[in-house]
Amino acid sequence: MPSSPNISFVLHDVARLLRKRFEQRSRAFGLTRAQWQVLAYLSVHEGIHQNKLADLIEIMPITLARLLDKMEARGFIERRPDPADRRAWLLYLTPQAHPLIEVMRSNGRKTRDEAFAGLSADAQQQLLQTLCLIKSNLLEACTQPAVDREKVHV
Amino acid sequence: MPSSPNISFVLHDVARLLRKRFEQRSRAFGLTRAQWQVLAYLSVHEGIHQNKLADLIEIMPITLARLLDKMEARGFIERRPDPADRRAWLLYLTPQAHPLIEVMRSNGRKTRDEAFAGLSADAQQQLLQTLCLIKSNLLEACTQPAVDREKVHV
DNA sequence: TGATGATAATAAGCATGCTCACGAAAGTTT
DNA sequence: AAACTTTCGTGAGCATGCTTATTATCATCA
Questions:
Q1: Half-sphere exposure of residue B19, counting CA atoms within 13 Å on the CB side?
Q2: With contact defined as beta carbons under 8 Å apart, do A39 and A68 qualify?
Q3: Sheet holding A48-49: strands in order across?
Q4: Using CA atoms, how far apart are residues B86 and B80, in angstroms rounded to an integer?
Q5: What does the pLDDT look like over A92-119, one tens digit per residue?
Q6: What distance in Å separates the CA atoms of residue B41 and residue B57, rounded to the nearest whole number?
Q7: Do residues A18 and B13 touch, judged by C-beta distance below 8 A?
Q8: Distance, first Cα to last Cα, chain A
């Protein structure tokens, strides 16, 4: 493992460091990476249900609910009751959230520029495609049982 | 953002899904992904200090300390006092941890096989190199202040 | 209509990362 | 030796993921 680095661990490290760097940059604005992701998706899907948004972002609805709690408390988003379904909420940005979008987008750009320094546009495109393939492989795999019959008796 | 997927978000998603899938597989053995990483590094560095191990894995010492607390409670590792430094511990695997190593390595292999299905060995090698470059960019960047002078007055 | 099942959101509790802060011991300087 | 500084490990507290379970509401079908 330490001799030749394990690609999964490196991938995990990169994700962790990306988040860390992004948050070093964004702390001053009161939004974390995850909250920024919510805001970004929400900005082009205002009026969406929590469930649908969780689907889009591909996180569990409860994970999103917790994020929204914080973002609502800080005045970035608003939950309005759905007149057609008393169980559900409709999600909206508050006016004060709008100006943040450009700022955060720029923070993301800067973090990416640091991270991908030395990578050609081609290489970045290549990387993106590879990652999308892996992601779809994993989304598929995660729906399947992972019981490992050969090993379960060990 | 939803039109062309953001490479940082995809990368984050892939890392999250890799962890999720690995843990679906490994839950039966009582080790999480992070704990397995500790075990893997430790298995080739027995007798190491916590600080040095945290450096190797590139996590904060406090994060490692928490992981070790759990792993010690479950009997996977052992902290022995360092005779030369009363502040420090030396880390060792317990006998019962050894047989797990091969099992977990195989779980990692299976998870990777699922994730990287459809990627040639070349493409995987390419990906690994790209990720290592990005990681080293980020490790460098994270040590630098991230104050964003143009934006701080917004 | 009235029971039965699905769905929207949340609660509880765990794991893993972080920052910030602190105590104890070690090392260094005066 | 005494006073500073550094280092080792950890406590407290937060954020974001997850699994599992619960409540309220909606939809369907007998």
A1: 17
A2: no
A3: A48-49, A85-93, A77-82
A4: 11
A5: 999 999 999 999 999 999 999 999 999 9
A6: 8
A7: no
A8: 23
CATH code that applies to domain A30-105: 1.10.10.10
Is A60 part of the contact surface with chain B (CB cutoff 8 Å)? Answer: no
Contact B90, B45 (CB under 8 A): no
With distances taken from each CA to the C1' atom of nucleotide D7, the closest residue turns out to be B87
Q: Are B142 and A24 in contact (CB under 8 A)?
A: yes
Give pLDDT tens digits for B97-127: 999 999 999 999 999 999 999 999 999 999 9
Question: CA B47 to CA B92: how far, in whole Å?
Answer: 6
Give the Cα separation of B2 and A136 in Å (integer).
Answer: 16
What is the residue extent of each domain of chain A? 30-105
Cα nearest neighbour of A141 on chain B: B114
Cβ–Cβ gap B12/A18 under 8 Å: yes
Class at the top of the CATH hierarchy for domain B7-142: mainly alpha
